[in-house]
């Protein structure tokens, strides 16, 4: 059970989920209704496209899947551990994510399909930033697993098992952040088009800087 949830985990989880929700909303509105922060629908579309859509479209969808995986691989290479800890170099990865989103803006405004791939890679990179914290599985770019875990927790509670309130708080923060990001992304895209991605990109840079400052502050306290 999560006995104590540090504030930096709470704030970070909410903001990262909001970033993913924003990117996904822009994807749904601007990438021919293509979700970008999660891949279940994309994988289904690949299967459907193989039967009656052009090979080019199938390749495009497969490239989105591959880009997400490569982004996650990039995080995996630098983090070398699946547990969320303050000592990790998340600032570098968040900075990289922000750069990928900025690159996506330019590519998409120039009508290059590669903009879809860089946005997908950014989401894959973010989703792999942290896998677990005190036994809680953390996924910031899609909510299926979060709702599943909440359902399991409620079912166990009905059987009189202990209920981890701190884990529930973490999950609710992720859900509220993702939904908020969807609302923000929709509003921004209406007025600014693909430039709406400037908002999540900027948040990545602010989050990277905030994490670096906080981590250095905690290091000084130890010594």
List keywords for this structure.
Transmembrane protein; mainly alpha; globular; transmembrane; DUF1275; 74% helix; membrane
Structure description:
This protein has 223 residues and is an all-alpha fold. It has one domain. It contains 8 helices and 2 strands, in the order αααααββααα. The protein has helices at 7-30, 40-52, 55-79, 90-109, 114-127, 144-158, 165-192, 198-222; strands at 132-133, 136-137. It has a two-stranded antiparallel sheet with strand order 1-2. α1 runs antiparallel to α5 (114-127), α2 packs antiparallel against α3 and α4 runs antiparallel to α8 (198-222). The model has no long low-confidence stretch (mean pLDDT 83). The chain crosses the membrane at residues 12-31, 59-79, 169-191, 197-214.
Short description, anyone?
Helices cover 74% and strands 2% of the residues. It has eight helices and two strands; from the N terminus they run αααααββααα. The protein is globular.
Structural class: mainly alpha
Count of DSSP H/I helices:
8
**H/E element string?**
HHHHHEEHHH
End-to-end separation: 30 Å
- Assembly type of the chains comes to single chain
- Point out poorly predicted stretches: none
> What can be said about the biggest beta sheet?
2 strands, antiparallel
Instruction: Name the helicity range.
Output: over 70%
Numbering strands along the chain, what is their spatial order in the largest sheet?
1-2
Number of strands: 2
Overall structural domain count: 1
Q: Tell me what portion of residues adopts beta-strand conformation.
A: under 5%
**What do the pLDDT scores average to?**
83
CA-based shape: globular
Nearest-angstrom radius of gyration? 18 Å
């Amino acid at each position: 059970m999560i006995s104590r949830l540090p504030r930096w985990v709470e704030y970070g989880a909410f903001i990262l989920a909001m970033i993913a929700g924003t990117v996904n909303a822009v994807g749904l509105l601007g990438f021919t209704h293509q979700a970008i922060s999660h891949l279940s629908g994309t994988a289904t579309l690949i299967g459907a496209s193989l039967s009656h859509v052009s090979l080019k479209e199938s390749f495009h969808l497969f490239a989105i899947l591959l880009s997400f995986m490569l982004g996650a691989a990039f995080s995996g290479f630098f983090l070398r551990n699946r547990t969320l800890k303050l000592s990790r170099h998340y600032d570098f990865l968040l900075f990289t994510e922000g750069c990928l989103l900025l690159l996506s803006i330019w590519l998409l405004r120039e009508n290059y399909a590669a903009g879809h791939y860089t946005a997908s890679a950014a989401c894959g990179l973010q989703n792999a930033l942290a896998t677990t914290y005190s036994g809680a599985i953390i996924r910031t770019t899609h909510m299926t697993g979060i709702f599943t875990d909440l359902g399991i927790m409620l079912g166990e509670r009905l059987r009189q098992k202990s209920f981890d309130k701190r884990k529930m708080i973490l999950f609710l923060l992720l859900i509220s952040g993702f939904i908020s990001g969807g609302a923000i992304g929709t509003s921004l895209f209406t007025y600014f088009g693909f430039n709406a991605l400037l908002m999540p990109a900027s948040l990545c840079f602010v989050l990277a800087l905030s994490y670096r400052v906080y981590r250095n502050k905690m290091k000084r306290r130890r010594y």
